[in-house]
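Box 3.1 A note on notation
Throughout this textbook, protein chains are presented in two layers. The first layer is the amino acid sequence; the second is a token string describing backbone geometry. Keep the layers aligned when reading.
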Amino acid sequence: MKSILILNGPNLNLLGKREPAHYGSLTLEEINQRLQTAAHGLGIEVRFYQSNQEGALIDQIQAAAEWADGVIINPGGYSHTSVALRDAISSVRLPAIEVHLSNIAAREEFRQRSLIAPVCLGRISGLGWRSYTAALMALVEILNDAE
């Protein structure tokens, strides 16, 4: 059975309360429940982790190299600032997809640049919570094609 780490960065624990016009009204737990249901239908295992701490996210990426087949990451604000998170993703060589709830291309200029995107297979943004399910389906297909 394939396993995927779904990693969420800073402030995503505030989903449902934080700027619902940009991020929607679902909580992170509600999004995770929807992803769990989708994963079950796809016959894969998903593990979830959220932290506001950059080092904790890096630790999870490094640990995933031992058990995961891929990573879906919403790095939050670290998308635009974290060389260390970028290097962690690059170092473990797991296929990764970057996701964002909001359409970052239509937001402030500083949000339009991602340090993470160049080390990911792709980026899905602007679909709200569906960005995650789109990434999950895409990553599973990519992993299946690689077999």
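The mean pLDDT is 93. Residues 20 and 77 are 17 Å apart (CA to CA).
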